[in-house]
UniProtKB/TrEMBL annotation:
Cross-referenced InterPro entries: AAA+_ATPase, ABC_ATPase_HisP-typ, ABC_transporter-like_ATP-bd, ABC_transporter-like_CS, MetN_ABC_transporter-like, P-loop_NTPase
Topological type in the membrane: Peripheral membrane protein
Organism this protein belongs to: Enorma phocaeensis
Species classification: Bacteria, Bacillati, Actinomycetota, Coriobacteriia, Coriobacteriales
Protein's name in the database: Amino acid ABC transporter ATP-binding protein
Record SMART domains: AAA (SM00382)
Subcellular location: Cell membrane
PROSITE patterns attached to this UniProt entry: ABC_TRANSPORTER_1, ABC_TRANSPORTER_2
Keyword Metal-binding part of the UniProt annotation: no
């Protein structure tokens, strides 16, 4: 858990709205993410969690409101979307790895092609991150031969190879067998302890409680309640938060 004295948010979300057709998926979302902070987003399926993450890294365009990154409006005309995305790492439920490549090539592809890093430098960086997720020995293994937990750890290492300032996780353990969820959460816990700024959509309440600095509960497109985990889990203010959390007891 990182604590930081910086007063400027890394990401500021203000009045964010997003609809798909007549379905209002995000309704006036306001949220600040401070450098070094770990924000966990919880909420029922369909409440808008993934859409919110996707608005942060420009995979979705908001209908109204703003997402600011270090004080720059992501919707501004002159914003370089590609260089911005390089600073925002994303880890998906389904890994999204290149299954026809080995682990190391998965990790070096974007740094070499997008960042114009030399292959040898990219491999040096990648080996460091594979080491930190416990997969250095698998660098030359084919991705398709890995377990789900190993694939997700590769996905985290791959995202880190771009040297992101913030990491977004969208239900990173939801596709995993229960017995291997822990190895992925442990990698994320270490990343948080190292000071990475993180936004984590998850149903792992123990992770939310123990690792995050702030928990955000989304309900039908709004932030119904947000606060420190000790408050949220011991004394939720809203009835709908209590109802949601009671399903995890
Ligand atoms: P969550 O991640 O909390 O489960 P989502 O953000 O994925 O929620 O989705 C919120 C709602 O928006 C859901 O009803 C979903 O079906 C709908 N939705 C998400 N993406 C699209 C899309 N591209 N087109 C139409 N509807 C979408
Ligand atoms: Mg989702």
């Amino acid at each position: 858990m990182a604590h930081n004295t910086a007063t400027e948010p890394m990401v500021r979300i203000e009045g964010l709205r997003k609809s798909f057709g007549s379905l209002e998926v995000l309704r006036d979302i306001n949220l600040d993410i401070m450098p070094g902070q770990v924000v966990t987003i919880i909420g029922a399926s369909g409440s808008g969690k993934s859409t919110l993450l996707r608005c942060i890294n420009l995979l979705e365009t908001p209908d109204a409101g703003h997402v600011w990154f270090h004080g720059a409006d992501l919707a501004a005309e002159h914003v370089d979307v590609n260089s911005l995305r390089e600073k925002i790492g994303m880890v998906f439920q389904g890994f999204n790895l290149f299954n026809n490549m080995n682990v190391l090539d998965n990790c070096t592809l974007a740094p070499v092609t997008l960042k114009k890093m030399s292959k040898s430098e990219a491999e040096r960086v990648a080996m460091g991150h594979l080491e930190s997720v416990g997969l250095a020995d698998f660098a030359h293994a084919n991705v398709s031969n890995l377990s789900g937990g190993q694939k997700q750890r590769v996905a985290i290492a791959r995202a880190l190879c771009m040297k992101p300032e913030i990491m977004l996780f969208d239900e990173p353990t939801s596709a995993l067998d229960p017995e291997i969820v822990g190895e992925v959460l442990e990698v994320m816990r270490k990343l948080a302890a190292d000071g990475m700024t993180m936004v984590v959509v998850t149903h792992e309440m123990a992770f939310a409680k123990n690792v995050s600095d702030e928990v955000v509960f989304m309900d039908r497109g709004v932030i119904a309640e947000a606060g420190a985990p000790r408050d949220m889990f011991t004394a939720p203010k809203q009835q709908r938060t209590r109802e949601f959390l009671s399903r995890y007891l």
